[in-house]
Amino acid sequence: MSKKSLLYFFLFLSINSFGQTYYPFPDSVGVWKQTSSFYEGSDIHYALFMNGDTIINSITYNKLYYSDTPNNIDTVNSNYYGAIRENNKKIYFFPDSIYNIYYPEYFFCFTSYIYPYPSFTEEVLLYDFNVNVGDTVHYPHLDSTYIIITWIDSVLVQGEYRKQYNYSYSYKPMSSCQPIGPQNYVEGIGDINMGLFSIFIWYFENSESLNCFEDDEVFYSNVSNCMTVGNEDIKTKESYQIYPNPTSEVLFIELDNPITNLIYILDITGKEVYSTKTIQKTTSIDVSSFKIGLYIVKIVSNQGNITSKLISIN
């Protein structure tokens, strides 16, 4: 085999190898910080975040909440937004029945001119990651809207390549449902340009944008000033495991290198609620008395290295 043939062979292998790993959607911890921009020049900054689970029609979903203070999420007073789940690489959303009472300015584009409202008695498809180039994905609840997958490439998210599905959008001429901007979505995150519900939003003299996304594994940002939940921490892959996540009783922290470490647990506002020093390989922490919500586990080594992870206590 010639050198050129070998080069093409290994290039083919490399292109296909990074595409084999599938990155599922968050199933317990996930935060999407977004901005709605309106024609008169005003912006609304908000966060959508997972917190706990629920059972609807005998199916388990992750509960999704809305917070109008994205850099200081109040998990107690945030409003329920709906429920989300993944099945066979498809992401489904079950809207909240009183969604439009809480957020009349955030209409979902279920029909050409919004009315009549959907019944909210069944889940709707949000993303389909089980598709190939040329496939059509139908959204019957969006007034017979559909998308066609035009090409699939990849995007680098914290050192690892994830598949990005690019599509063309078909909609009725009088509809205001067409997303304004790049039309694609990424494994494990969704639309990295226009936010989690880019296909659902009613676009009329307004636009949506994703500022950053964070779960218990990665952080992705489109803007330089988007704060992580633990914004001063350096988020890197370290030799540790934190489990189970979510938890309601005991949290275990397992370190591959049990040198002297400081362990902190912070609430979503950054307030310290627990701290300990350990040299053990495995540390157990009783969290049964903690309030339900999102927390940050911060580990500081004796060399000053800082890592953090988002956890959910339910």
Radius of gyration: 21 Å
The proportion of strand residues reads over 45%
Proportion of helical residues = under 10%
Outline: globular
The topology string of helices and strands comes to: HEEEEEHEEEEEEEEEEEEEE
In the predicted model, the low-confidence regions spanning at least 5 consecutive residues are 3-19, 100-106, 111-115, 230-237
**Tally of separate domains:** 2
Q: Would you tell me the overall average pLDDT?
A: 78
Structural class label: mainly beta
- What is the topology, as strand order, of the major beta sheet? 6-5-4-3-2-1-11-12
Q: Give the assembly state of these chains.
A: single chain
- Quick one: biggest sheet? 8 strands, antiparallel
Give the N-terminus to C-terminus distance in angstroms: 59 Å
Task: Give the number of DSSP strands.
Answer: 19
Number of helices: 2
Question: What is this entry, summarized?
Answer:
This protein is mainly β. The protein contains 2 helices and 19 strands.
Q: What are the main properties of this structure?
A:
single chain, 314 residues, mainly beta, Immunoglobulin-like, 2 domains, eight-stranded antiparallel β-sheet, four-stranded antiparallel β-sheet, 45% strand
Structure, explained:
The chain is built from 2 helices and 19 strands. It is mainly beta. The protein has 2 domains: 198 residues, no CATH class; 74 residues, Immunoglobulin-like, CATH 2.60.40.3080. The strands form 4 sheets. The protein has an 8-stranded antiparallel β-sheet with strand order 6-5-4-3-2-1-11-12, with no helix packed on it. It has a 4-stranded antiparallel β-sheet with strand order 7-8-9-10, with no helix packed on it. A 4-stranded antiparallel β-sheet has the order 16-15-18-19, with no helix packed on it. A hairpin with a 2-residue loop joins strand 2 and strand 3. The chain is globular. The N terminus is likely disordered.
